[in-house]
């Protein structure tokens, strides 16, 4: 429940351009009732320089249904040396 608070900040790690399921469920739950002003953040996407850095479909959905004041992205970091062989093949 978020009633009784002056503001709400919701954020999620981003994997394969998607928010984690717990964050998406929270957005859906909060959107179904009156709520204080909401700010959003995403953390962890890896982006090339020719791609927008603060737009994923889940973040856009959250902004829309919560009428969020703002959404910010904190870029991710990937150290290829720490990946397993399988992870390196995917990367």
The secondary-structure element order is EEHEHEH
Rounded to the nearest angstrom, the radius of gyration is 15 Å
Most strands sheet:
4 strands, mixed
Task: Tell me what portion of residues adopts beta-strand conformation.
Answer: 15-25%
**Can you give the mean pLDDT?**
87
How many E-type strands? Answer: 4
Descriptive notes:
By secondary structure, this protein is an alpha/beta fold. Helices cover 30% and strands 23% of the residues. The chain has helices at 21-31, 57-66, 85-90; strands spanning 8-15, 18-19, 38-43, 70-74. Strand 3 (38-43), helix 2 (57-66) and strand 4 (70-74) form a beta-alpha-beta unit.
Task: Record the SSE blueprint.
Elements: E1 8-15, E2 18-19, H1 21-31, E3 38-43, H2 57-66, E4 70-74, H3 85-90
Parallel strand pairs: 1-3, 3-4
Antiparallel strand pairs: 1-2
Short description, anyone?
This protein is an alpha/beta fold and about 90 residues long.
Key terms:
four-stranded mixed β-sheet, 4 strands, 91 residues, alpha/beta, 3 helices, single chain
């Amino acid at each position: 429940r978020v009633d009784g608070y002056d503001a709400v900040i919701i954020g999620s790690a981003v994997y394969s351009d998607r928010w984690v399921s717990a964050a998406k469920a929270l957005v859906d739950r909060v959107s179904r009732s009156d709520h204080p002003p909401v700010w959003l953040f995403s953390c962890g996407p890896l982006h090339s320089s020719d791609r927008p850095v603060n737009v994923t479909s889940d973040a856009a959905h959250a902004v829309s249904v919560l009428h969020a004041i703002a959404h910010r992205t904190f870029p991710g970091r990937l150290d290829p040396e720490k990946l397993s062989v399988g992870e390196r093949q995917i990367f």
